[in-house]
Amino acid sequence: MATVEQADPVLKEDGEGVRRRDFINIAALGVAGVGATIAVIPLVNQMNPSADVRALSSVDIDISSIQPGQAIKSTWRKQPIFVRNLTPKEIAEANAVNVSTLRDPQTLAERTEEGHENWLITLAVCTHLGCIPLGAGEGENKGAFGGYFCPCHGSSYDTAARIRQGPAPRNLEVPPYTFTSDTVVQIG
Amino acid sequence: MSFPWAKHYEPKNPAMRWIDERLPLPRLVYSAVGAGYPVPRNLNYFWNFGVLAGVALVVQIITGVILAMHYTANIDTAFNSVEAIMRDVNSGWLMRYAHANGASFFFIVVYIHIFRGLFYGSYKAPREMIWLLGLVIFLLMMATAFMGYVLPWGQMSFWGAQVITGFFSAIPVVGEPIRQWLLGGFVPDQATLNRFFSLHYLLPFVIAGTIILHIWALHIPGSNNPTGVSVKGPQDTVPFHPYYTAKDGFGLGVFLILFSFMVFFLPNALGHADNYIAANPLSTPAHIVPEWYFWPFYAILRAFTVDLSFFGLFTIVEAKLLGVIAMFASILILFFLPWLDNSPVRSGNYRPKFKIAFIILVLDVLVLGFCGQMPAEEPWVMLSQLAAAYYFAHFLIVLPLISHFEKPLPLPGSITEAVLNKHRIKGERDALPGMGSATQPQPAE
Ligand code: HEM
Ligand code: FES
Does pTM surpass 0.90? Predict the structure, then answer.
């Protein structure tokens, strides 16, 4: 019995095999360990975005007043977004690029909606470390590839908002959106 | 603990004896920072900076707890509450300037403290644990200072939080979820500010706890010294009190004069004007710079501009991830230092080649710091690439090679011998007899 074994643990030290007491110890610690691990889950999870932040919000943007060559800044889920009306020249430039040479290969068509190829809608969040790139406002630096330029660490995006130069690894992200009419686009 | 000749605590008055018998706290203090702690007799002023760092932490905690009485961690009111601290709260401006500049002074002091250790080989056996705990404190300090800087919710606060949490999104697959977990959202927002305040309040006390371990580890072998030669006997040491309490007290006076000068005459010199503009999530400042104490690391982060690829065919590691890895590695590498430098000689004073490499390293870190606050343009990018490369080469190539090939200068037989020789030479030069008496200095009490 366990109590008898406990009486002379020193003598038992070289004994082989698992004693009943060892088994109970390991089992008890194992259960306690699992319990502690489970208790940690909510402690860690509480830091994830809460329901109100996650709630999928959508915004309607009126694009009727954006002329070709112009862009506006708006927000979606508190993140800034760019809505840009590309000129035919910018579209041609974007299509002239050999996609396989790109860091994040994507065609302009894959980044826009069919029938609305001139509307380039992206997050305004540099994929490097999250600054807002320049290039949407009048007279702002559009960088070496005519799209957007991030002043933080010098990433340049082209007219399809694809990364062309600098430390950013990916193209500006395209959020989910639908055209609810010819002049209104719903983001989200 | 400590040396066999350390004096034991003998309570002088009955009240202290009564306490000591029930809670040996007086005994602990006496043997830790009192006459019961023998310290090498030859420490120079570089040995002041540990105590100064401790004082800086106390200043931060006192001013911080007071600021927290007036500060509100809410994205709509945080900026205004800090302005109210500056304008309306009685002496609020003093508390805030002392806290903001206190952080800078804390880092100045700690950087000197770290480079002291680097030069005198204080990271070597038997002091590895002290060194490792010190690096943990340094990491905690950086986290604390970063989160503190977010609290005023100015432009630099917001965009600093955005960029620094962006580091984590570089990690493949789990990066973006980790970033959202840290922020509690997709961008820095209310959840972010609230948790940063909570942690900014907590971490200084974690630092205080780690400092206790750091000092505990220090008291096992005792302090290193400018010769790097181990203590051999009672003649090599003097009691901490009154000798080093006095020396540290003098250093503290100088520190407080410089600190007061900054707080009262140049309170914003180390800060950034953009942080007096309330956070605007829709406009990135033209030039984001972290606080000066992060510049060298920021330069390393930005030094990586091209992906590591397999002969240009496919990417192995993205530039963004490389930069982040390098930045963390620049600190992590210090954890391995005790095993990278194999020279048995501790002090740089007796290592002619190491001395040169050390000076180059200091200059290299200064260059990195300078590049870190310049815009990400040439020639600064190129310069930070070279300097970052040298930084790693110093620890991974130069130090191991030097410790292999270098012929150290002859070491003094003991600390006392080194001290007496110095005095004798000086004495002969000044033609003054009687310098460098061989008797061991006795404590004043
Ligand atoms: C390791 C010690 C600490 C460091 C390095 C540190 C650093 C900082 C920094 C750099 C700032 C931004 C200052 C500014 O630009 O206004 C700050 C703000 C703040 N800290 Fe600390 N801090 C420390 C300890 C504490 C403690 C213990 C508290 C207590 C609650 C505290 C409370 C605050 C508050 C309320 C603010 C916002 C008000 C302000 O911006 O001035 N700090 N801290
Ligand atoms: S955040 Fe845009 S280049 Fe770094």
Answer: no
